[in-house]
Specification:
Blueprint (H helix, E strand, L loop, with lengths): L2 H44 L11 H6 L7 E6 L5 E5 L5 E6 L5 E8 L2 E6 L6 E10 L5 E12 L5 E8 L9 E3 L6 E3 L2 E11 L4 E9 L6 E12 L4 H9 L16 H12 L4 H19 L5 E2 L4 E2 L9 E6 L4 E5 L22 E2 L5 E5 L11 E8 L2 E10 L8 E2 L8 E5 L5 E6 L4 E7 L5 E5 L12 E7 L12 E2 L24
Parallel strand pairs: 15-21
Antiparallel strand pairs: 1-2, 1-6, 3-4, 4-5, 5-13, 6-12, 7-11, 7-13, 8-9, 8-10, 8-12, 14-16, 16-19, 17-18, 17-20, 20-21, 22-23, 23-26, 24-25, 24-27, 27-28
Helix pairs in contact: 3-4, 3-5, 4-5
Pfam families: Big_6 (PF17936), Endotoxin_C2 (PF18449)
InterPro entries: Big_6, Ig-like_fold, Pest_crys_Cry1Aa_dom-IV
Keywords: Membrane, Transmembrane, Transmembrane helix
Length: 507
C-alpha cells in the first residue's frame, strides 16, 4: 500500500471515530437530560412511598382529625372486655356502677380528648374506650396526644394506650407497643406522644384503658388528641393532576380540562398535609392554570344572514374563533345534528365542526337547504369549558312573487287581483308612475282596492300596474299592465240644421 492510500485510510478511520464519539456523547447528554426531567416530574410521585414528615401544627391536626365515634367497654378482673356503651354525640358515659347505682368508673370522650376516671371502689374493674377509623393500606397515619395520669396520694396508675391494626379489643393486633400493656405506671404530669404508622389494613383502632385502684381515685387523660392521614389527598391529587394533561411533560391540556376540573384538583391538594409534596403539586397545577388562562374566547361571524338562495349567506356561515374550538350551530331546522363531543364533563352538546389551527371555520347547510326569514341562528364556540356565542336573525331578502292585476273597467267601484298574503299592494298610474291606490292582500292572497268617489269613473284606456311589498320592505316585480276598459256607450243627440225653403237637402 502506498503512502497516499495509507494516509487517506487513516484520515477516514479517524473521522469515523470522532463522529461516533460525538454522536454517542450527544445521545448520552439527551438521555441524561431526559432522565433528569422525568426524575423531576416523578418527585412528588415517588415521595408518596417515603415516610412523610410529622405534623406538629395543632390547627392542622384538629382540622383533619379522623377520630369521631367511640365505644365504651368494661371488664371485671381477668374477664374479657364487654361492650358497655356507644357514644352517640354525648361526650360522657357511666361505665361501671355499684349495686346501689353509684358510678365507679366513667369516661368522657370527644374527637380531641379521651378521659377515663375511676373512683376508689372500682379496684376490681377496668374500663376501656376505643375509636375505630377506616384506613387506606399503604398510607401513613400519625397519632398525636398529650397523655396524663394521676391518682390520689401519688400512687401508681394502671393504664394503657394501644394502637391496633384491627378492632377486636379482646384479640388486639398492636402496632404501637410503648403503652400497649395495661399495667402500673408512675403518675404522669404530661407526656407528648407523636407516632407514625403505615397502615396495612382497612381499619385501625385506638384503645384507652384504665383499671381501678384500691382506696384511691385515678384518672387517665389524653388531650390534644388526633389521628391524621399523612398521605391524605396525595393519591387523589396526583390522579386528578395527571388527568388534566395529555402526558407527563405537562405542556398540553386534555380537552376535558376545565376551570372546574382544575379547581377540584386544587381543593384536593389543599387537604394534603405533606408540605413538600403539596408545594410540588401546586407547582404542576399552576402549569395547568397557565395553559387554560391562555384560552381567550372570541367569535366573529357575518353581521347578517339572509334567506335569499342566491346569496351565500343563506346557507353558509364563515367565521373565526379561538384555534381548534368546537363550534355549534342552532336555531334553524336546516342544521343537521352534530356528532362531535367536546369531552367536557356535563357538556351534552353535539358540535358540528371544529375550527382549524388558526381559528377559522366554515359551515354550509346540506344542499338545497336555506335559512328562513326570522330564524334566530346561534353560533357557539367552546374549548375546555370556555365558551362564547353570537346570534343573528335571518333577514328576509326575498321579494314577494309577481302579483296579478285583474281586468279594470271604467265604471268599477273596486280593483281586484292576487298577491302574497299580508303584503302591501300599491297600484300605479303607468303614465307617470304615481301611486293611484294602496291596500293589503288578505290571508287568502286576494286583494280588493276601493276606488274613491273622487277618482270615479276611471279614464278609459289609461294603463295601471301593481306591486307587492312584504314586511321586510322587499318589493315584487310589477304585475302585467291593465288598460281601463271603456264600457260607457256614447250618447245619441239630435243634429239640428236650418234650411231655407227651396234649398236642397244636405247630401
Amino acid at each position: 500500500m502506498n503512502k497516499k492510500k495509507w494516509y487517506f485510510l487513516s484520515v477516514l478511520i479517524m473521522g469515523v471515530a470522532v463522529f461516533t464519539i460525538f454522536f454517542n456523547l450527544k445521545t448520552e447528554v439527551k438521555t441524561v437530560l431526559k432522565a433528569e426531567e422525568n426524575k423531576k416530574n416523578a418527585n412528588y410521585q415517588t415521595r408518596v412511598e417515603e415516610s412523610p414528615p410529622a405534623i406538629t401544627d395543632q390547627t392542622v391536626l384538629s382540622k383533619y382529625n379522623l377520630i369521631k365515634d367511640f365505644e365504651g367497654y368494661t371488664k371485671s378482673k381477668d374477664e374479657p372486655w364487654s361492650l358497655n356503651s356507644t357514644w352517640n354525640g354525648t361526650p360522657s358515659a357511666s361505665l361501671v356502677k355499684d349495686e346501689r347505682g353509684n358510678v365507679l368508673m366513667y369516661a368522657y370522650a370527644e374527637s380531641s380528648r379521651v378521659e377515663i376516671r375511676s373512683n376508689s371502689g372500682a379496684r376490681d374493674w377496668s374500663a376501656l374506650v376505643k375509636t375505630t377509623i377506616s384506613t387506606i393500606p399503604g398510607h401513613y397515619y400519625q397519632l398525636s396526644t398529650t397523655m396524663r395520669s394521676s391518682s390520689e396520694m401519688g400512687k401508681e396508675v394502671i393504664y394503657a394506650l394501644d394502637w391496633l391494626s384491627n378492632s377486636d379489643v379482646n384479640n388486639p393486633v398492636s402496632v404501637y407497643s410503648d403503652y400497649s400493656e395495661l399495667k402500673k405506671r408512675p403518675d404522669n404530669i404530661g407526656t407528648t406522644i407523636r407516632k407514625t404508622v403505615k397502615a396495612t389494613t382497612k381499619e385501625m383502632t385506638l384503645v384507652f384503658s384504665l383499671s381501678g385502684l384500691s382506696g384511691s381515685k385515678s384518672v387517665l387523660d389524653n388531650w390534644a388528641l388526633s389521628l391524621v392521614d399523612l398521605d391524605q389527598g396525595i393519591g387523589e391529587s396526583i390522579k386528578g393532576l395527571e388527568a388534566l394533561f395529555t402526558d407527563t411533560t405537562h405542556t398540553e391540556l386534555k380537552l376535558s380540562s376545565t376551570q372546574a376540573e382544575i379547581d377540584k384538583v386544587k381543593e384536593s391538594i389543599e387537604t394534603i398535609l405533606n408540605t413538600t409534596t403539596k408545594k410540588e403539586l401546586f407547582t404542576e397545577l399552576a402549569k395547568a392554570q397557565a395553559l387554560l388562562d391562555k384560552i381567550t374566547m372570541s367569535l366573529t361571524i357575518p353581521t347578517e344572514l339572509v334567506n335569499d338562495p342566491k346569496n351565500e349567506l343563506s346557507h353558509t356561515i364563515k367565521g373565526k374563533t379561538y384555534p381548534n374550538s368546537f363550534v355549534h350551530f342552532s336555531g334553524s331546522s336546516a342544521f343537521p345534528v352534530g356528532t362531535l363531543s367536546s369531552e367536557v364533563a356535563d357538556d351534552l352538546k353535539k358540535y358540528q365542526i371544529r375550527a382549524d389551527g388558526e381559528g377559522n371555520f366554515s359551515y354550509s347547510l346540506p344542499e338545497g337547504k336555506y335559512f328562513k326569514e326570522d330564524e334566530k341562528v346561534t353560533v357557539t364556540s367552546m374549548l375546555r369549558g370556555k365558551t362564547t356565542s353570537q346570534t343573528r336573525e335571518v333577514k328576509d331578502l326575498v321579494p314577494p312573487e309577481k302579483p296579478k292585476l285583474n281586468t279594470i273597467k271604467d265604471q268599477a267601484g273596486t280593483i281586484s287581483g292576487a298577491a302574497e298574503a299580508g303584503t302591501t299592494v300599491t297600484m300605479y298610474d303607468k303614465s307617470d308612475d304615481t301611486v293611484f291606490l294602496t291596500g293589503t292582500a288578505g290571508t287568502d292572497g286576494q286583494f280588493s282596492l276601493v276606488i274613491p268617489e273622487a277618482k270615479k269613473p276611471l279614464v278609459p284606456y289609461k294603463t295601471y300596474y301593481v306591486t307587492a311589498t312584504d314586511a321586510a320592505g322587499n318589493v315584487s316585480d310589477a304585475s302585467d299592465d291593465q288598460v281601463v276598459v271603456d264600457t260607457t256607450a256614447p250618447k245619441a243627440e239630435a243634429v239640428k240644421q236650418a234650411l231655407t225653403l227651396g234649398d236642397k237637402l244636405p247630401a
